[in-house]
């Protein structure tokens, strides 16, 4: 078991009441810089999921104020923001981690987040504020 998967427990699945808020934790997946992945680099966010573990855009509209994100990156101070659904991007819309409401240069965009099931062990990618793409493992999905 490596650092990226250590600690996963039963019950951390996307099986959920459709539209219910879930706490989703992402850990940095294996990369050149982190060959074993890293539990010290990632995100934890709240989002409503459908029965298949995908972000439920309709439920998000009613719960958007509760859909927060925390970025944790090794020894850096945690960053707090919101999960936002925006027009544009692949498929006509994109999910973004927005840290400053009045600025977009700090946003981090999920690559095809609307298409991915947030289920432990699955992989998702994010483009950071510098334009670099990083892959993450869905570490856990639990009731919020």
Quick structural summary:
By secondary structure, this protein is mainly beta. The chain is built from 1 helix and 8 strands.
Q: Which overall shape is indicated by the principal axes computed on the Cα atoms?
A: globular
Q: How far apart, in Å, are the first and last alpha carbons?
A: 26 Å
Work out the radius of gyration.
14 Å
SSE ordering: EEHEEEEEE
Fraction of helical residues: under 10%
Question: In the residues, how many domains can be counted?
Answer: 1
The percentage of residues in β strands lies in: 35-45%
Total beta strand runs = 8
Structural class: mainly beta
Mean pLDDT: 86
* Low-confidence parts: 1-14
Counting DSSP H or I runs of 4 or more residues, the number of helices is: 1
With strands numbered from the N-terminus, the spatial order across the biggest sheet is 1-2-3-4-5-6-7-8
Sheet of most strands: 8 strands, antiparallel, barrel
Essential attributes:
single chain, 144 residues, mainly beta, eight-stranded antiparallel beta barrel, 8 strands, 5% helix, globular
Describe what this molecule looks like in 3D.
- The protein is built from 1 helix and 8 strands.
- It is mainly β and 144 residues long.
- An 8-stranded antiparallel barrel has the order 1-2-3-4-5-6-7-8.
